[in-house]
């Protein structure tokens, strides 16, 4: 499902790029303008080896496109990541090391439970972690959708054309779908890891 969403987003980006829909500014210039408007002094790195992201600690925005690219995918990413910078990290993002520390301890607990207790016990310890993942997923949704909504608003201000506005809305919808599905899938994968650790404990106890 994740891969299908990514392919869909890429296909839409390529389709609108082929239609030669260009915006008045390149992605780096747009990011810098938005940062300046909001009094932020972030560094913008283009053609980064990583995917587009905002690093609050290093005050750096990474874009995966060339700085002069003006088509939809590039400027949308620039506006989206700048939106993250302007909004700032959410509370759970600020304490992410604590979250991962709790998760590592939980994996060890799953392993230990496999030695001494039955499957019902694993389900009991899985419920609090599932709740924590649920909170983290909702937090991620609010953060990503807020930045995506910011990007849509910014780009719609840049162009009066109906075709461009339609392209922005389609891209917005694809971004939203992607950022809804990915956190859920990621959380499920991490919970499955706990189940695997429990099963290892069971096997070793035998």
Strands, helices and their partners?
Layout (H helix, E strand, L loop, with lengths): L1 H17 L8 H11 L5 E3 L7 E3 L4 E3 L9 H16 L3 H4 L1 H21 L2 H40 L3 H44 L1
Parallel strand pairs: 1-3
Antiparallel strand pairs: 2-3
Helix pairs in contact: 1-7, 2-3, 3-6, 5-6, 5-7, 6-7
Summary of the model, kept short:
By secondary structure, the protein is mainly alpha-helical.
State the helical fraction.
over 70%
Rounded average pLDDT: 84
Uncertain parts: none
Task: Classify the secondary structure makeup into a structural class.
Answer: mainly alpha
Identify the strand order in the major beta sheet.
1-3-2
Integer-rounded radius of gyration:
21 Å
Q: What proportion strand?
A: under 5%
Shape: elongated
User: What is the tally of beta strands?
Assistant: 3
- N- to C-terminal separation? 37 Å
| H/E element order | HHEEEHHHHH
């Amino acid at each position: 499902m994740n891969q299908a969403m990514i392919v869909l987003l890429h296909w839409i980006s390529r389709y609108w790029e082929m239609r030669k829909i260009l915006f008045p500014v390149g992605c780096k210039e747009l990011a810098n303008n938005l940062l300046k408007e909001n009094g932020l002094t972030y560094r913008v790195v283009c053609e980064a080896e990583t995917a587009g992201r905002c690093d609050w600690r290093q005050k750096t925005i990474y874009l995966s496109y060339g700085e002069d690219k003006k088509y939809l995918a590039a400027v949308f990413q620039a506006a989206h990541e700048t939106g993250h910078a302007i909004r700032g990290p959410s509370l759970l993002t600020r304490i992410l090391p604590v979250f991962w520390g709790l998760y590592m301890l939980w994996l060890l607990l799953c392993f230990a439970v496999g030695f001494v207790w039955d499957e019902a016990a694993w389900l009991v310890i899985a419920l609090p972690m599932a709740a924590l993942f649920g909170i983290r997923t909702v937090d991620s949704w609010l953060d990503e959708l807020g930045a995506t909504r910011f990007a849509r608003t910014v780009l719609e201000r840049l162009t009066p054309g109906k075709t461009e506005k339609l392209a922005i809305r389609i891209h917005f919808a694809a971004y939203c779908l992607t950022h809804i599905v990915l956190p859920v899938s990621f959380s499920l994968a991490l919970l499955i890891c706990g189940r695997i650790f429990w099963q290892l404990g069971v096997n070793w106890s035998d």
